[in-house]
Amino acid sequence: MEKYDVIVVGAGTAGCLAAKTTAEAGLKVCLMERKKSKEIGEKICGDAFGEHHLRTIGLEKPQGNELERRIEGIKIYSPDLETVFTVRSEDYVGYMLNRRLFGQWLLKKALDEGAVLLDSAQCQEPIIEKGFVTGVLAKNLKTGENVRLMAKVIVDASGFLAVVRRKLPKEMGIENKVANGDVEACYREIRQLKREAENAEYCEIYLNQKVTPGGYTWIFPKGGAKVNAGLGVSMRGKFPNPKNQLYEHVLTKPIFDGSLLLSGGAWYDPTRKPLDTMVGNGVAILGDAAFLANPIHGGGIGPSMLSGYLSGKTIVEALERGDVSQGSLWPYNCKYMKLYGTKQAGLDVFRMLLLTCRDEDLNYGMKYGLMTEEDVLKAGAGGDLHIKVTDAARRAFRGLRRIRFLNKLRLTANMMKQVKAHYKNYPEDPGNFERWRLKTDALFKEARSKLIE
Length: 453
Fold this sequence. Notes:
There is one protein chain. The protein is of the alpha/beta class. The protein has 3 domains: 2-47 and 98-176 and 274-329, FAD/NAD(P)-binding domain (3-Layer(bba) Sandwich), CATH 3.50.50.60; 64-97 and 179-271, D-Amino Acid Oxidase, Chain A, domain 2 (2-Layer Sandwich); 344-451, no CATH class. Helix content is 34%, strand content 25%. The chain is built from 12 helices and 18 strands. The protein has helices at 13-23, 52-57, 99-112, 242-249, 301-321, 326-329, 331-356, 359-367, 373-380, 391-399, 403-423, 433-451, and strands at residues 2-9, 29-32, 48-50, 67-71, 73-77, 84-87, 94-97, 116-118, 121-129, 132-140, 146-156, 183-192, 202-206, 216-221, 226-234, 260-270, 279-280, 283-285. Strands 1, 2, 8, 9, 10, 11, 17 and 18 form an 8-stranded mixed sheet that branches. It has a 7-stranded mixed sheet with strand order 6-5-13-14-15-12-16, sandwiched between helices. A hairpin with a 2-residue loop joins β17 (279-280) and β18 (283-285). The protein is globular.
């Protein structure tokens, strides 16, 4: 039976950063991954990555073929295609990744620091002893052998499946399940075009509730006249098949005439506020397992890497104290909520508005400047959402009987402010957590009742 200081379950972006950060401090670290070593990094994903995330966690820019194309911003199209927001800022400048090579680059970072890779190993469940997570039961997929691995801290970086988190006891206080309405079903293809697309330095996002209810379509340019094209739909109620929607409404665009399918696939993307707490006794939850993707555009690479880095630093400090209780690991919660979680929670409220917006409302809201590129930029960066009502907009909405939508916009902006103010007071220790969580539940219940139900 192997014993480690840290076992990281999942060698994605979050897991590799957690393994690197803990291993470089001299800890004995096992990085467990279901895939074979050479397949690590391969994932159905939008492949877009903000450059600022590298600076936040102190990583240099890859120098190989990991970065396929530089992106200068995002173009957001109204449902009728008549209004286009061009959003450029530090938060929206970045790269399209070669996902496998980027994953291999991060893996090498972890292994170079001394982490041990256990690939082709499927984590089956956590080992719980006296209220602490002390190890994992796993299956060696090469031999079929069941193995028992022990560690002082277990890190769940296993993605949406969250193989550790889903089997934690309720008394640990960490959510086990995610509601379908907080998940998007996605399908995407990498396609080789006959010629490079126009405006290839911008990612394109298309809003249309008929095509992508509660989600959006994306067309992201990659290197060599390739594109990452896909869409996501909210799994609320009876939702359409995303692959069918892509073929019926997106791949029929002229840009795809004569294009060649290189790869395709489906996945699930949690789009909501982060877990209220991402730590328990001897355990930390990271990346998609902790619901850390941006609620609006679903981007999760940057937040996942941030969670790996912050959790890793916290685990090192906890082990230096010889205390891996929830209280000792709690600073990971506080640091993440301060850097990204507060913004994410506010955007979750904005997502609720978009879930029930009619295309006609979105068209007129963008056309008459109720929201502008600057507003989208500020809201996406975590700032407040400002609703500007010009005389032209007021007349247009009154004439079209869309005052109800205008009121919902105002309500959304107010609820976002309340939620962010609440998250800025995230408890510094578990002692005040239950009171904070009850207020969180009340705020989001109110938001859902006013914006969705």
